[in-house]
Amino acid sequence: MDQLINFVADEQIERFERADKIGLTMTELACAIDTGVPNAENRDVHAMTHYLKWSQTEKGIARKAFERALDREFQAVIHTAKEMAAKIEQPADLWDLESYLTQSRKAIDRKYDYRYSVLTDVFGKLVREGRLSEEELAGLGEDKLKSIRSYTKFLARLEAVA
To answer: Where are the domains of the chain?
Structure first.
């Protein structure tokens, strides 16, 4: 049984690496895993995730959810930075704080991408991390919620095999 689990984990990681090399988003990869190798039928699903139509109402809901999650992320960084600053006793501690802030900024810049073509992936990751709840996305179309759930599910599977 352990060999089977390791085999499946290795296969999933290999798929992830191949997808990353050719520029597939996580939603596209999750769809490919759920539906098998991309074919004429599920290629449309992949294209759909990049070309979802966002109504004005959905754009407003998405912007508010995005901003709330980003604010939560900033508040966590501020809290940690304040704790670190309070413990500074020697010059090396300053550089630890600087390094933490730089790494946090880069991580936030990578994670928070408000392009509509990738926004469902961003929301899926934020839901998975607990920065956003699915209830905060209420009002988005079912097509977008399905894409978000699919990506969240994919991330959970990926974490399970890693």
So the answer is: 2-161
